[in-house]
Each structure stands twice: as structure tokens, then as C-alpha cells.
Amino acid sequence: MALEYKFDQGQLRVNASDSKKKLCWYLLIFVLLLNVGGLAWLFLSGYLMPVEADAKHSFATSLRGKMNEQKHLLTSQKETIKKLTQELGILKREQKIQLVANDKLNGKLQLAETKLGEAKEEILLYGNILNKKDLKQGLHIQSFGLKPVKVDKDGKKIAGNTRFRYRVVLSYIRSDDSIIKGNFSISIIGKQNGSPTTLKHQLLVPKDGGTALTGFSLKYYQSLTGEMELPDGFSPEKVKLIVSPSSGSKLEKTRDWVAATKQ
After folding, report:
1. pLDDT digits (tens, 9 = 90+) for 197-217
2. Count: domains in the chain
3. Which domain holds residue 222?
4. Is 113 a member of any domain?
């Protein structure tokens, strides 16, 4: 490195050469360019961009901004999905509760309608008995038929079409106040898996409980009702009623299944 020595007003001054000055300028320019380049890279990368939740368009000016925008949208969508999932769960629970309540109400309504229909039938039936004046002395099968049971005693729907309620109405015409007793039996004639089969109502008690009536005791008239449940694979064709009083002759009545269940 070359140095210049000068005497100025009695003092010795040392000055660097021009080459040294040029080197310093080069270093200064390099440092400035390096700083500008770093700032430009930070700007383009989005580190110097303002991040605002509502200013979505500002993110799109750089690659980092676009990435932040996508992250922001993803977070927002996750929150929306979470809220919708919670609302859907609430709606499903409410719908389930409503469906259960509707089923219970429908069951109670059907049960009430069934009992009302039976009461009306009994009124008409007993009215017909009172109006008949040409009945002979003795025991008579006044009415006999079956009806499908759609709901159980709690109002719940019964699956399939295998449960039936039978009704046997007996009347007793005589000149005294005596009481007549006896037994009765209902036979379902049909086919079990293609083979001819006869089933007794005493053996067709529904699975959820109950007992089968077999006896009767009446002074004027009596309505005998009960339920029976047919087994799977059984196709009924006819139904036969046999009434056996303690004294006197047996009474029999056979009906086609379709006609008996449409009564």
C-alpha cells in the first residue's frame, strides 16, 4: 500500500493512495447492494407484508401471501365445518327425539282407534242380538271372526302380518234364568311350508305373553276375545270354531280365512 507524506503548517500528514480509496468505495457499494438484495428478498417472500385478517387481497401479491391466504381459508373452513357438524348433531338428536315421540303418539292413536272400532262393533252386535226375535231356544254362535293386530298393548307397531285377534260371541235363549257353561276351540287350517297343517288357538299364544281362553259361562250372551300368532311359513286357508256346552249338542262353524279376517 502506497502512502503520501506531506508537511502542512509544521505537521506531518499521511494520506492513503487512490487505490485504497477505490477499494473502500467498492466495499461500501457491495454492502449497500447486499442490503438492498436482502430487503427485496424479504419483501417478495412476504415477510415484510402486513398480515391482516380482513385484507385477503394483500396476501395475493407474493408467494408467502398466497400461502398465508390459503392457511387462513383452511382455518376458516375448518371452523365452519366444526360448527356445521355440531349443528347437524343437534338436529339429528332433535329429529330422533321427534321421531320417537311421533311413533309413540301414532301407536297410541292406532290403539285408541282399534278399541273404539271394537266398541262400535260390540254395540252393533248386541243391538242385532236384541232385535232378533226369531231365535230358537238354546245356545247360538252369534258371531265369529278375526282381525289383524297392528299394534301391541303399548301402542308399538307389530312387524309382519301374523298376529290376529279373534272374537266369538255366544248367545243363550231360554225361558228361565239358568246359566250354560262349556268349552270352545278354534282351529286354523292351512299349510306349513307346503304341508297340510291344523293349528289350535291354545298353542298360538303370542310371544310377548297372554293366555288362551278355552271356557265360557253365560246367562244371556258372552263375548270371548283373545290373540293368536301364526308361525313363520304358515299359510292359513280356513278357520273352524267348535263350541262344546256342558249339556246339549256341539256347535261348529267353518269360515274361509279371507272372509273371516275381513269381518
Report:
1. 999 999 999 887 777 889 999
2. 1
3. 132-261
4. no
